[in-house]
Amino acid sequence: LTKCKEDSKTNGVVFLTSGGTSVPLEKNTVRSIENFSSGKRGALMTEYFLQNGYHVVLYTRDNCLYPFHHYFTKQELFLMSEQDHNYEKYVRVKELYEMYIDNLCMVTFHTILEYLKGIKEISELLHQAQKVSEEDKPQLSSITILAAAVSDFYISEKHLSEHKIQSGHHESGLTITLEPVPKSMGKITTEWNPYTMLVSFKLETDEEILLTKAKGAIGKYGVHCVIANELHSRYDKAYLVKDTAEPELIFITQEDKEQDVPIEKYIVEKICAEHVNFTQ
């Protein structure tokens, strides 16, 4: 963050969450409930924010897909040679990696409780870095983007089994009571970092309720805008939802698909444009 403040050319810092959280069923965890996410969307968005002049703090699930690394498997990288058909792509990605890696900080989480703790701590660190000037404006501009797949329910620590749950003790079936995860989104702009522009993601399987749910998050949690998408079309289209305007469709064309241009490129462009207006 200090380096970002000293960079006169930066557009600010993006705090981006990615990947899915894990809900342990035991303290000495053998079993867990997973919110699955590969982390690819977060990895791609990180790359595009770096290319748009931002520093990025990527808060991601451990062992997810990471920026610049997700294009190739470990085996492909190990066997890569100049004769490989992917070699030119490898060179381009490597050049981007070397160009932007100093502007990227990655922090990992695993469980839902680790995620919640990190959201608070990183937001507060950002707030401290955004020292207010005499004109009552933050000296460092930030965007907080919640793109992680976060569990809605969990087992609180006091109710966790100490050791592995034994199947022999539950031959007639196992009943687990889950509690709602404490809500943290609303605290980001009210308590932890009031200066940030907050963006959340909303994923639904029913497109009919998607935009209604997205609009509801704006008033409920103090979100500047929501990127809303439906499960089966999330790689092709999304909506930028704001409280003061009609939802704006973001999509990729057939030409984009043929040239491997992902929708994340256009999502990032929309968020960057919103940030310019936010800081004026």
Automatic annotation (TrEMBL):
<dbReference type="InterPro" id="IPR035929">
    <property type="entry name" value="CoaB-like_sf"/>
</dbReference>
<protein>
    <recommendedName>
        <fullName>DNA/pantothenate metabolism flavoprotein C-terminal domain-containing protein</fullName>
    </recommendedName>
</protein>
<feature type="domain" description="DNA/pantothenate metabolism flavoprotein C-terminal">
    <location>
        <begin position="139"/>
        <end position="262"/>
    </location>
</feature>
<dbReference type="GO" id="GO:0015937">
    <property type="term" value="P:coenzyme A biosynthetic process"/>
</dbReference>
<comment type="similarity">
    <text>Belongs to the PPC synthetase family.</text>
</comment>
<dbReference type="InterPro" id="IPR007085">
    <property type="entry name" value="DNA/pantothenate-metab_flavo_C"/>
</dbReference>
<dbReference type="GO" id="GO:0003824">
    <property type="term" value="F:catalytic activity"/>
</dbReference>
<dbReference type="Pfam" id="PF04127">
    <property type="entry name" value="DFP"/>
</dbReference>
